[in-house]
Amino acid sequence: MSSTRPILLVEDNPDDETLALRAFGKKKIPNPVVVARDGVDAIDYLLCRGAFSDRDPNVLPAVVLLDLKLPRMDGLEVLRRIRADARTAVLPVVVLTTSGETLDIEQAYRLGANSYIRKPVDFERFLQAVGLLGEYWLDLNQSLEPRAA
């Protein structure tokens, strides 16, 4: 497993954040988890700006788990900016949201989402989804090591 690279969880709902962190723990996913609670913080983290200006730009997340309904900058704009920057263009992005709207799904894929998962409400189903996410994106998937510019 790619345990040295963090998972970037972009989530503004404290309950969903807690649920995700619990699920990562229960599934024994060893990657550190960095939480960004809005879209601006997510982009700042990825591009080493603002509060994250001292972060090592050579260590990008193994995967970004991105909610769509976020304050300050919504998830679709975050995805647009991730794909527009050469440093993050190939970063795996999994949309993990409560929205099942066809338009959201279509826009996410058009903007370059690697996967779109609707958050299950039931903890056991969520635990199963996180386990599958971890197994696939952190263990089985062969991805490029993004390079900082």
Tell me about this structure.
The protein has 149 residues and is of the alpha/beta class. It has a single domain (7-138), classed as Rossmann fold (3-Layer(aba) Sandwich). It is 39% helix and 14% strand. It is built from five helices and five strands. The chain has helices at residues 14-26, 39-46, 75-84, 102-110, 123-140, and strands at 7-10, 33-36, 63-66, 93-97, 115-118. The chain has a five-stranded parallel β-sheet with strand order 2-1-3-4-5. Helix 1 (14-26) packs across helix 5 and helix 2 (39-46) runs parallel beside helix 3 (75-84). The chain is globular and about 35 Å long. The model has no long low-confidence stretch (mean pLDDT 87).
Per CATH, the class reads Alpha Beta
Task: Give the end-to-end Cα distance, rounded to a whole number of Å.
Answer: 25 Å
Order of helices and strands: EHEHEHEHEH
Number of strands: 5
Number of domains: 1
Helix/strand/pairing category? alpha/beta
**Portion of residues within helices:** 25-40%
Question: What CATH architecture would you give?
Answer: 3-Layer(aba) Sandwich
The CATH homology group name: Response regulator
* Uncertain residue segments: none
